[in-house]
Amino acid sequence: MLAPVLPAPSTAYEHHRAQGRSAAKQDAILRGGAPRANVDDDEARIGSAKAVVGPDGQPYRVAILVPTINNADELDGVLGYLMRQTYPSYEIVVSDSKSNDHTREVCEKHGVTWFDDDSTNRADACTKALQTMDHDLVLFTDDDTVPPIDWVEKLVRWFADPNVGGVGGPNFAPDHDPFGAKCADVAFCTRFMTAGTRYGARPKGELVPISHNPGVNCAHRMANLREVGFFESGCIGAEDVVLDAKIQRAGHKLFMDPSNVMPHRRRRPFKPYMKQMRNYGYTRMVANKRWPEIAAWSHTAVGLFPWLVVASTLAMLAGAALGGAAPELWFSLSGAWDLPRIAFHGTLGLAALYVAIAWLGAATGTSPHRSIGTVALAPLFVFLAHWAYGQGVNKAWREIRRTGGAAGVGRQIDDRTRSV
Questions:
Q1: pLDDT tens for each residue of 301-348
Q2: Were both Cys, which of 31, 196, 232, 361 would link to 191 (CB 3.0–4.6 Å)?
Q3: Beta pairing, strands 218-221 & 137-140
Q4: What angle do CA 98, 104, 110 make, to 5 degrees?
Q5: What is the pTM of this model?
């Protein structure tokens, strides 16, 4: 069935985007027709996709929600990409948690909807904006992404199937990210030892059932969001994991489109990278405490990693001091394998195995930034990620013992400067 003719631009986004175009060209785009051929390829594609029609025979009302705080310059770039999409009609809503930079001016520049939010965490910032919105589908992304020109189109298309409750896609570092950030991307997307993260998940198939889509690249039906009460109030991290668990608990299905990649900037080494991983470990464990159904054994296992590293280092030093590192014991299996030799060479062998698995996982992973350099440094970046994530897990364990269920509620744990 052909998509119906779309109405004239009605949102701030459509009004802004229509300016500067001829009436004939705008009319063709809104109807899904081909614009004139005297523009570049990208310009010709803007607004050229057909709208997806809902059960009532009308095009879905689509919104993109971008939570932000004090990141106006990067947000400016994100909105620039979101304004140039192949999908014909949608609204962009920015939920601004009291930024003290020029975020509002950036929103006004692009003609998008600016929502003044007083929340202290991403979950509440999204929920408060959602409660004021009247759309059928809501797409989510962050203020540090590089949305492809067909990102909206490729997410919305799947909602023609009523069985699709939500859909998302993978995310990788943008091509213009610096080398260190690409090394982080390779570590995030390694085939092994990722602690269950889904950054680089790219299963085979066009539309694959999945239990969780990261909030940087996903879309949900508004009816489902309302049914589950939106995001969990006060959640300071892993709010997207909890939301997906609530939606599935309500009986709705989530899927991934492996082809719909969202470039998402990675933290640079070493301090920002490790801080992010510590935050991930902390927020995931406190979320696991409140919602046991999202817990995975791998998160607990990474919490033991720092202790294992310390114990292994002490064992190697003790083994060396007691003669286990004598020259004649190297590169040989002969001779007695007493405790000092096992403590030194056995631990060294396990460390070598860890490095080998990290190299293999990076070389066979999904990151598009795999190269000799990034794969060679993968063991270092994987180790730092495990160490920092484990520190965060241990911090969460301490706070859970101290506060019980109060852990994980309140102020967002991230690397942003918050004004409230």
A1: 999 999 999 999 999 999 999 999 999 999 988 889 999 999 999 999
A2: 361
A3: antiparallel
A4: 145
A5: 0.86
